[in-house]
Amino acid sequence: MEDVFGQLQVQVCREIHLVEELHSLRQLLSRCVSISIRQIW
């Protein structure tokens, strides 16, 4: 039973890490977009 719980924890940690990476990627993307918009104008 503990093994299953351990695997579950690992999966949750991975998903949290993925969400954080996606969030930072989105921030980076929006920053790049705003910079390029400023350069166009």
The CA-CA distance between the termini, in Å, is 60 Å
Main pleated-sheet profile: none
**Helix/sheet category:** mainly alpha
Radius of gyration from CA coordinates: 18 Å
Low-confidence stretches: none
The share of residues in helices is over 70%
Query: What's the total helix number?
Result: 1
β-strand amount: under 5%
Instruction: Name the shape in a single word.
Output: rod-shaped
Mean pLDDT: 92
Write the element-wise H/E pattern from the N-terminal end onward: H
Number of strands: 0
Structural account:
- The chain is mainly α and 41 residues long.
- The protein has one helix spanning 2-40.
- The chain contains one helix and no strands.
- It is rod-shaped.
Summarize the structure.
By secondary structure, this protein is an all-alpha fold.
What's the structural blueprint in terms of helices and strands?
Blueprint: H1 2-40
Jot down its keywords.
41 residues, mainly alpha, 1 helix
